[in-house]
Amino acid sequence: MVKKIMRDPLFLAQKSTEATEADKQLITDLLDTLRVNLDHCVGMAANMIGVKKNIIVVAAGPFQFAMVNPVITKKTGAFQTEEGCLSLEGTRPCTRYKELAILSDRNRIMQKHDLEETNARWNEYLNG
User: Which of 24, 28, 27 is nearest to 56 (CA)?
Assistant: First the structure.
């Protein structure tokens, strides 16, 4: 189900907790919400729809997928950029990385995601 975007910066700054099997519907809700925003969004974290869980969803080309309890294990090629967010007005400067390695737990299987340039930017944004 498409959810309303959370815009409260105090809520968005709070730490999220580990996702569990009970959070499966949240993945569906995040993917549905991402899909209706694909023209101006490449990824979302669960807190962006008001839930403090460690789940992100990502659009990579024609695909959208979830990462549950993602952990960045490697980042290289730091660069400065400016970007916006569905939850916050305007843009802000930030440091991103050309390459990221991420482990995520999806259906109790650890997945490794090696990402380059643009895909690394959205993932670092969602995790950092």
Answer: 27
Task: Provide Rg for the chain, Cα atoms.
Answer: 14
Cβ neighbours around 30 below 10 Å, total? 26
Pinpoint the alpha helices (H) of 8-107: 9-12, 24-36
DSSP letter for 34, please. H
pLDDT (average), residues 79-88: 92
Contact 33, 47 (CB under 8 A): no
Three-state SS at 61: coil
Six token digits for residue 80: 């400065």
This prediction's pTM: 0.81
Q: What is the DSSP letter of 126?
A: H
Residue 80 CB-half CA count within 13 A: 2
